[in-house]
Specification:
Helices cover 36% and strands 40% of the residues. With 171 residues, it is α+β, with helices and mostly antiparallel strands. The protein is flat. The N and C termini lie far apart (64 Å).
Length: 171
Amino acid sequence: MTGANSAGAADELYAHIETAAAGTPYRMCRTERGFDLTVDVNVPQWRMLLIRRRVTQVHTYRVALRPEKKIFTMTDVVRTVEYEAGLTGVRLGKAVFVGRSLYVTSRRAVDGSDQYTFSAGEGHHLIRGAAGELGWREAQPASVKIAAGFAILGGLGALAAVIAVAIVKWL
């Protein structure tokens, strides 16, 4: 595939996902290597008599494209900021998660009048669906490959420990 055709494939994918995200809370933004699909997650908030807690969370699906091969990688970047004020003082916290994130958050008013549900899988499906329709394939990002490697290494370590304990008990 030539450079012009590669750029055209990337533009076509971007436009396809932008169309699929129209009318949703998702926002698109081009990046140097592809694009970001971002959504503000409505995290349940609570307030008690003398305590107030506020959490803001932004979920970004960072998509890197290799248009010459029609391959994309998707990495979740979840930014969370927490604020809590009460009798014991003020607590602030910030966390950033990078990798693959699968979670669901929901909120419902006691009387059932206000309902909200967010699933991290929705953005994954939106991107994969549009990419699949255009013949793109997904490759795992480095962060997911590294995590899988550590999981396998940990599993092998646990298996070796079980075998060692079994041998010691047998002797």
